[in-house]
């Protein structure tokens, strides 16, 4: 029978073997007392199974408050498998099973979901990204290198006309991609329809003149019916990229957008810290992004190297790479998405961002890295594009930059951050 | 201008005042460098505002891994307000704003969202529970006292016929309410339609005979289109209660169900531990339940007193009480929902469960507390109903129970747990 498996990093005062059994029981046929109806045949058919336990250490105190106590707290990696007959291929039910009540078990003083192994059926059943990197380039009317992007700032406060004016400045600066901030959706001060009309006028005019269609990831995040209306409005106006705040709408909302969308889906991960910040409870990005890709995201935010938030470079590199790895090792389609680097990015992060992936199929979003360039935003974009060319040719920025060029001025202006890539990415 | 405010429990090595300003900036008009376009007028109109800072302590080490470090880590309660003009009344955008990137801020070594104060507009704009406690009793054909319920166990593994046979046993035992386990949704081993047909045959036959319509909370959790199909199937078969795993479908999924539902919505919180387990990152139940109620849940799981999981009784009592409190202190409608106590519940928890609320408008789910009664499930249900009567009359179980009665036998059989209620609930 086809099974799905998940690996958890757990800590327990009850012994790893017992804790793993409780976890598997709670999440399948068991309850806190064994019932007569839980026959051996039923268990054989439907129960979750502990596949592997790898102890990783012990501590004297619990990592999280824990009702049960013990002399020591054992930590380990526990792999559990489920027959998919009990829950089928539904992503919401997958969540209820792999990320449900188990987070509240009294036998656990830490629990993180760190890996899932999806059967081929999942990769076949779910739509996955509709366009990916190749489609993204087509929507732009052809494009080489990484997609150089930026974010409308201030995040909120501009009205539709002011937003469109900023978009015009950015387009004239040569930008490839512009996104709304995740806070900007459809408030009365900057309504979705008015904003999109104003912005698409600028984008369409530029496309008509130059053949280059700048991507505008307009934030469609809203209730389901409104998101669908937003997609209709996008189609009417020729917009090509819908941004979705994935935590705000859930997997199901993302999937519902994908089902009715014929445009790029730009997956924003605002709220991700809630699931990832603690080392003792949560879900690893490499797990969650598989589900987001199954549900249909073409682009996925992965934070940036040397970002302004808390994740270190190893986590960001792992996240970026995971987005370009097959969604299931058991089958095609691989459902590859395009990683989006963002947060305090400048010319200095392009080469390491590329070296993590080994290709140019990524979006590189810079805010200050473009707008604060001493020569203005056009020089900002130009310096990033030259930095990408240098990276592709394997030449150091300092050697690549011609004296007085925008890249040269950027080298002088932007402080080089310390980037500490893990060995797999260098 | 109408504002919405949120209170966070934060910890920071950067000073509370600075950290609060960073949080407010990140979640509104600011970015990591101040832009020229962020004018004073724009800030006045659109920026989040720090309303209050209440220091609560300091520690020498950070609670969560934190990129920034300091000699001490200050903890405090920070209240921030936003003008609703920037994001409107959409629940998903509310989430992006109040529970978005801020969880990843490098200036914070702990952050929990612990309170929100919703303007009246939210209570008016969103549908809220369609039926609540009064409607629940009507669906049952009239009912007094707490609703005595149970869960289909084993959680998964029974086929539709076996499920219906168990439902028949439970109905004959006098139960009011039966729910699917959150793991049981629409897998090939127990398809939704087949299960519902089989179960409703039993329930409808009993209703035709006795006038009592037992509630069956069938788990409709699935992708959006399938949930809507499930609602249609429910209507065809006369089913009256749809269970939704709220984390698995998100706020938007819950709201989408409410928009097309004419039945009770039973909100299951599987996965809640992910947001609540850590004292240093997450969202408090009293916050999240407001959003679930706005989106339309009639019933909300709150765990049980003396449960098998990790929450203590004070947390459970606060959760239960929050569900019956007005959703906004600024306006009607209050959107009251019905709390559902569940997890290792027996006759001993009914009186304290009632005393928390001061009324009988709750669902009390017992598994072993019914099925393991030495006299069988009918005695199990009878003993719980007598325990509820004793609670209502303010009589101790031991004094209320007639010798040899099911309640008397339950008193002997089930171990009395230690329950430690907070002062507000006694």
Describe this structure in words.
2 copies of one chain form a homodimer. Chain A has 426 residues and is an alpha/beta fold. Chain A folds into 2 domains: 3-117, 2-Layer Sandwich (Alpha-Beta Plaits), CATH 3.30.70; 132-425, TIM Barrel, CATH 3.20.20. Chain A has 17 helices and 13 strands. Chain A is globular and about 75 Å long. The two termini of chain A are 40 Å apart. Chains A and B meet through helix 2, helix 3, helix 8, helix 9 and helix 10 of A and helix 2, helix 3, helix 8, helix 9 and helix 10 of B.
Q: For this entry, what is the oligomeric state of its chains?
A: homodimer
- Helix-and-strand structural type of chain A: alpha/beta
Order of helices and strands of chain A: EHHEEHEHHEHEHEHEHEHEHEHEHEHHHH
Give the fraction of residues assigned to helices of chain A. Answer: 25-40%
Biggest interface between chains = A-B, 98 and 98 residues
Ends distance of chain A: 40 Å
CATH superfamily of the largest domain in chain A: Ribulose bisphosphate carboxylase, large subunit, C-terminal domain
Total discrete domains of chain A:
2
Mean pLDDT of chain A: 95
- Percent of residues in beta strands of chain A: 15-25%
Unreliable spans of chain A are none
Q: Quick one: CATH class of the largest domain in chain A?
A: Alpha Beta
Number of continuous helical runs of chain A: 17
What is the CA-atom radius of gyration of chain A, in angstroms? 24 Å
Name the overall outline of chain A: globular
């Amino acid at each position: 029978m086809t099974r799905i498996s998940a690996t958890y990093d757990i800590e327990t005062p009850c012994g790893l073997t017992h804790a793993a059994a409780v976890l598997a029981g709670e999440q399948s046929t068991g309850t806190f007392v064994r019932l007569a109806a839980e026959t051996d045949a039923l268990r054989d058919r439907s129960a979750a199974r502990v596949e592997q336990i790898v102890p990783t250490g012990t501590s004297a105190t619990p990592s999280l408050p824990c009702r049960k106590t013990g002399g020591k707290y054992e930590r380990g990696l526990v792999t559990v498998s489920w027959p998919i007959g009990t829950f089928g291929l539904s992503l919401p039910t997958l969540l209820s099973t792999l990320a449900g009540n188990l987070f509240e078990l009294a036998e656990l003083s830490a629990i993180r979901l760190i890996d899932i192994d999806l059967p081929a059926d999942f990769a076949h059943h779910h739509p996955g990204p509709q366009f990916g990197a190749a489609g993204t380039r087509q929507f732009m009317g052809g494009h080489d290198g990484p997609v150089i992007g930026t974010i409308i700032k201030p995040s909120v406060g501009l009205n539709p006309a002011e937003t469109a004016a900023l978009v015009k400045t950015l387009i004239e600066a040569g930008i490839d991609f512009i996104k709304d901030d995740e806070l900007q959706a459809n408030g009365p001060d900057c309504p979705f329809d008015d904003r999109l009309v104003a912005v698409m006028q600028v984008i369409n005019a530029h496309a008509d003149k130059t053949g280059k269609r700048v991507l505008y990831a307009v934030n469609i995040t809203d209730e389901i019916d409104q998101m669908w209306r937003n997609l209709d409005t996008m189609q009417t106006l020729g917009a090509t990229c819908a941004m979705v705040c994935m935590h705000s709408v859930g997997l199901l909302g993302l999937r519902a957008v994908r089902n009715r969308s014929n445009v790029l889906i730009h997956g924003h991960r605002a709220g991700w810290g809630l699931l990832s910040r603690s080392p003792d409870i949560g879900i690893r990005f490499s797990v969650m992004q598989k589900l987001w890709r199954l549900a249909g995201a073409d682009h996925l935010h992965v934070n940036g190297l040397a970002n302004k938030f808390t994740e270190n470079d190893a986590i960001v590199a792992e996240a970026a790479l995971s987005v370009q790895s097959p969604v299931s090792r058991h089958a095609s389609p691989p459902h590859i998405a395009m990683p989006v680097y963002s947060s305090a990015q400048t010319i200095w992060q392009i080469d390491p961002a590329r070296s993590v992936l080994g290709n140019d199929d990524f979006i590189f979003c810079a805010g200050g890295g473009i707008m604060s360039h001493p020569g203005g935003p056009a020089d900002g974009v130009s310096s990033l594009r030259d930095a990408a060319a240098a990276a592709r040719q394997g030449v150091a920025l300092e050697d690549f930059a011609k004296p007085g060029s925008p890249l040269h001025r950027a080298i002088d202006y932007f402080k080089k951050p310390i980037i500490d890539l893990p060995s797999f990415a260098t």
